C-alpha cells in the first residue's frame, strides 16, 4: 500500500493540486511549486509518476490516476477522453488571477426573472478584487454559440446589477486574435463588461 511518508512535502502538495484542479501542465506545476528548471521539474515529477497519468499536449500534462487519488483520499475524475486542453487553459486563468479562494469550476448560476428560471454554466466563477468573474474558455466552440452565450450573460449581468450585488465581468480566454476581436465586439454590442485574453498572451 503506498504511503504519503514516501513522498516529499512538495510532491504531496502537487498531488493535492491535481486533485483540486484535475490536470496541470509541467510549466504550470513549475510556476505553482517553484520547481525551477525543466530538468529539476522533471526530476520532481518523476517521483510521482506511479500516482499520475500523463498526456502530451505540447508539453506533458499530469492528472491523478486511481492509485494517486486513493493515496490522498480524492477521486480520479479525469479520463483519457477528458478535454485536457480545456482544463489546462482553465487553470491558466486560475494561476494568472493568483489562485482565487472562491474558485469554482463548472459553476452553474441560476436566476429567476419574470417568474421564469434561467441558468448558465460557466467554465469557472471566481472573485478578484471584489468583482465577480465568469470564465468562458473557447478553443473550438462555434462563434454562433459564443454569441448566444454573450447574449445570455447580458441577461444575467443586468439581473445582477439590478440586485445591486456588484459589477460582474465576463472573462473570455480564447486561442486567436481573430476570435478575441469578435468576442470583444459582441460584448460591446450587448453591453457586457468583459476582459478577453488570448492564449498567445501567456
UniProtKB/TrEMBL annotation:
Entries under InterPro entries matching the protein: Replic_Relax
Protein name: Phage protein
Organism: Parageobacillus genomosp. 1
